[in-house]
Amino acid sequence: xxxxxxxxxxxxxKYTTCDVSDALCKLKYRNGGFLSGLTMWSPxxxxxxxxxxxxxxxxxxxxxxxxxxxxxxxxxxxVPKGAVVFVSCPPKIPNAVYGGLxxxxxxxxxxxxxxxxxxxxxxxxQRELQYPIFARGTGTAPPAELLKVAxxxxxxxxxxxxxxxxxxxxxxxxxDLNGVVVLPADLAEQALPLMKKQVEADDKMAEAxxxxxxxxxxxxxxx
Length: 223
Fold this sequence. Notes:
nine-stranded mixed β-sheet, Glucose Oxidase, domain 1
């Protein structure tokens, strides 16, 4: 990663996905950057302190009859160090688009985790690797009978009819127990001071509420 990215990633590690969303809401970014339907599967299922932060390395799967040519090599061999792999799969596909060997290679390359906008497989293998996986669900069959990789490091859309959300190469992906958030790279420097201010205010509110102050009164005083 570039030095500027390293600094932003280090700062983002101080905050939860909820903190990031709060800041993005203040900047009027839709849904606070939340990417619906993606939850933690590895190293544990919605448990533990796992959090991943890094710039997105995107992978775009398409249906076999899509006119786009197949990507000429395997995307996993060019994952950058520090990246979060984001695999986009067309909706309503029962097959898995990501497996244990992908994580083995991604981990060796220095990726910090993978987010699968679709199904993945080899769950036990992922957990034995202690490799973070966030996804829509699990599957068993590989993708080749239905899908092909058409592009790498291109903008992709979240595959749901709940939202119209884009994930672009280099955007920051933050994932923890609360879910997955995308922070556009061009908003990161504006968002970070807002996160700091919000967390400081919330900490003061929490102490005041514990001491008996009402939520409304604490909100007026500290926010």
